């Protein structure tokens, strides 16, 4: 096996120019890089520059072995775990909606909205995200399977599986490849060129947070790929249709059926407010957790050159350097869908989420032994850093940015590349 | 029924993207929109290593015909495993399977099943069933091959005064013979049933010899006049087929209906690759033992779903119809019928059929 470039063999633009009718032939998507069996990239990321090819190979083997150990011990207790979470989630969902029927009373409004919010968060994160990753496919239960699952989110599961599982998880933090870096609307890395529209960074992000599911839905349409000719207009039409159907169903449930059911109890308006609030709370929470995954200080981004010649070990390293964890209690891990174990999740996206805490113990030890940073922190700190970046990068880079090649203190907390700017930076 | 459907549709407006059954499942474990289920109602130990499991199926089950089988799913160590079992109960009763503890799944079913457990089901299938019109019958069974025939006997004998059934059943010992006492009681009570047990480790200590007609003539002299049903191990059935073909007259050999338990499996050990068949795409290709199924498929023009191409994203899952595959990451050879295979990291291990 050799490393390959990820250029499409035929460029779609040439096809279009040659008069090939769009939609008759499937548009060529860039093929995935095949990981190199040995060697390494021309230049390792600075935080891993001290590792030799042999070190990286050994690291890859250790992590493969760690994965195998978890897989070998998957069993009845893991299956019982996910079923328990699903049972709790569905009970909360039913109870929340039922309580909203009486939401004319303030206590019922608060209780109903709270229960529905928690249900939606669990459904989205610990259940939906992880089921769609195929973390529970090994149970071979068609009721809890990545191929049959649909979630309570406006973007259809199939579209999200493509952009998230396939594109984001393969190209983690590779600028120009991983569109999760800023979701095509935010400037989230110094190496992304600045343009005046970036002044709106904080504003865009503030709007994005409560409507996060819409951001994801639009993002999953891959408008940029359509513009670049990597995705056909026909495919876009199909995706839009699928999204439209999903939106209608989601809206009917939350904004028509639930309030209508509450009308006989004189609680129609309050129930509508309740479901809207629950969606907004889930969106803000998901937005916060996900921004903590790859944007806090200490998380690296990569160039396409840096991943050329990547071996399995290098791929693992990129996942480790490109992700940040959230520290906290068991409840915190549950409510973040164990994305608080982002590093472990990115190295092993299809291991059952309830086992990540176990992986984390070994992962930390491995990072320490190999002198690699392991970025983690409590939620408020990580959220603050992500937002600070949103504000900071609204403005052009300062004249002398810290060069990316600077060697870091091994396994030391990585200092922020720039001190946080005052929060009013974007004004003017 | 129409009312139920209308109600279900209204409920689904509130449960989308889940089905109403997903919520009903909170109170009724048989409720599922995707998977027929049954609850175990009675567990009867038949012999030292075989057990009859009675179950009540949920909505969607079709009543079985005597002699039919069903795919039964059971969760072992968190993983859903499927096997086919003949239904041993009489028609009109809740279904039951009789499982002998041989192999991973049957052993777990026979040893660990408790009343209240949930089984996953597929509807009854098979054409090993009683003839449409009354005829004298000969049942030729060995070991657990008795189970479909037991359903036929239980259905026919007590209800039809004109029944004329001879059962020749071969088992190792009296203790290991399934339904031994029940059969003798039935034979005692109903003149329409004659039971001939053959114990290979007791009288004569030899197997029932079907290589010529001697044993059969002794046990059932008018075997040529009867519609015969045979069920048992492969060699037993092969011998019976041979016997009916050569020693029957022209009319006789069409009289034999057989039921095989062991499917003809395409199997191979890891590493050597094999012939890859893409059933829906109607394509075949010889693939090496180190070539991912995904690449082999793409190379011969099959539209394969694909994603990360490194075994993480599961965009490439394709159901396995038959055969075994080798995980290129671990070298593990695996593959059950219907299992979803990650085609980007699995290669053929012997002949493989994929449902795409």
From TrEMBL, chain A:
Low complexity composition bias: residue spans: 1-11
Pfam family, any one: FA_desaturase
Domain of life of the organism encoding this protein: Bacteria
Matches recorded under CDD domains: Delta6-FADS-like
A GO CC term assigned to this protein in UniProt: membrane
Annotated segments matching region Disordered: 1-53
InterPro entries with a match to the protein in the record: FA_desaturase_dom, Fatty_acid_desaturase
GO MF entries: oxidoreductase activity, acting on paired donors, with oxidation of a pair of donors resulting in the reduction of molecular oxygen to two molecules of water
GO biological process terms, semicolon-separated: lipid biosynthetic process
Occurrences of domain Fatty acid desaturase (ranges): 114-376
Name this protein carries in UniProt: Putative fatty acid desaturase
Species whose genome carries this gene: Terrabacter aerolatus
From TrEMBL, chain B:
Superkingdom in the source lineage: Bacteria
Keyword Transcription annotated: no
Record keywords: 2Fe-2S, FAD, Flavoprotein, Iron, Iron-sulfur, Metal-binding, Oxidoreductase
InterPro entries: 2Fe-2S_ferredoxin-like_sf, 2Fe-2S_ferredoxin-type, Beta-grasp_dom_sf, FAD-bd_FR_type, FNR_nucleotide-bd, MRET, OxRdtase_FAD/NAD-bd, Riboflavin_synthase-like_b-brl
Domain FAD-binding FR-type: 33-131
One Pfam family from the record: Fer2
2Fe-2S ferredoxin-type domain location: 274-356
Record's protein name: Oxidoreductase
